[in-house]
Design brief:
- The structure is a single chain.
- By secondary structure, this protein is α/β, with parallel strands linked by helices.
- It contains ten helices and ten strands.
- The chain has helices spanning 38-53, 65-68, 74-94, 106-115, 132-140, 142-151, 167-175, 178-182, 202-211, 232-251; strands at 2-8, 12-19, 26-31, 57-61, 98-104, 122-126, 155-158, 161-164, 188-194, 215-220.
- The chain has an eight-stranded mixed sheet, sandwiched between helices.
- Strand 5 (98-104), helix 4 (106-115) and strand 6 form a beta-alpha-beta unit.
- Helix 5 crosses helix 6 (142-151).
- The longest helix is centred in the middle third of the chain and has 21 residues, at 74-94.
């Protein structure tokens, strides 16, 4: 594994870890969930190991500090997409062949947004936050959300930290979910959902598969298959399910 630093406009530093074999037919860019927590790290490392096994390249990046500090806001979302866009261009300079995306949790949203403006080969999603409004309600609590929507407060307390609220974005997210536009993405999308995810539902990705032949939905079964894959068996099942897809991409 190699490392590098990417300096974005405004002198924001993005840490990059990567492994791109010279003969790799394709490279995946890995996007994590909110922040850079241990669960995101475990899922990304397991997926990176699978890519290495099949001779494919991968690029993992660490969200800038300013992005992590603004969870649940439009600044976080726009920062995430901007960061991924720059990492995508960085990766293309080092690998001119097929580019794919991997998105875990909220990283799935960012990956889908990028695929609307860039030419992508395929996208692998794990527990994607397709219904952002439902995710926000579960994470922040219904009472806080009602106060937010009623008073249009400028700050919201979450985990004892006050975050600036992107109220404008949340209104738009309520009216037009991401997956309304995502049906038009011109690449194959392989979405996996944990059965016992308390925040998100399999029906979200299943409905996408019904609307678009590009979407492929699969369920990761088990009572302990939760959003964060805290149970190692759930993560193992995901790797087992996604490996045939990776093997096919590696031989294309």
């Amino acid at each position: 594994m190699l490392t590098d630093q990417l300096t974005l406009p405004g002198r924001t530093i993005v840490e990059i870890r990567f492994q791109i074999p010279d003969n790799a037919l394709a490279t995946f860019i890995l996007s994590s969930g909110y922040g850079n927590d241990q669960f995101s790290e475990a899922v990304q490392l397991a997926f990176a190991g699978l890519l290495t096994k099949h001779g494919l390249g991968w690029v993992q990046y660490i969200y800038p500090e300013r992005c992590q500090k603004n969870k649940f806001t439009d600044l976080y979302i726009s920062s995430g997409i901007t960061t991924l866009s720059w990492v995508f261009e960085w990766a293309k300079l080092r690998h001119s062949r097929q580019m794919h995306l991997f998105g875990y949790s909220f990283g799935g949203n960012i990956s889908l947004e990028l695929a609307m403006i860039k030419q992508i080969g395929a996208i692998v999603l794990v527990n994607p936050v397709l219904d952002y409004a439902a995710y926000r309600t579960e994470q922040l609590g219904a009472e806080a959300i009602r106060e937010w929507e009623t008073n249009q407060v400028t700050f919201l307390t979450y985990e004892k930290v006050r975050y600036p609220v992107g109220y404008r974005f949340m209104q738009e997210a309520e009216q037009q979910k991401l997956h309304t536009r995502a049906t038009n993405i011109d690449c194959n999308i392989y979405a996996f959902q944990a059965e016992n995810d308390a925040i998100l539902k399999y029906s979200d990705i299943d409905s996408m598969a019904l609307k678009s032949p590009r979407w492929h939905a699969d369920l990761i079964p088990g009572e302990r298959a939760d959003h964060n894959f805290e149970d190692p068996e759930s993560l193992r099942q995901f790797i087992q399910k996604v490996e045939p897809i990776i093997a096919e991409l590696a031989s294309a």
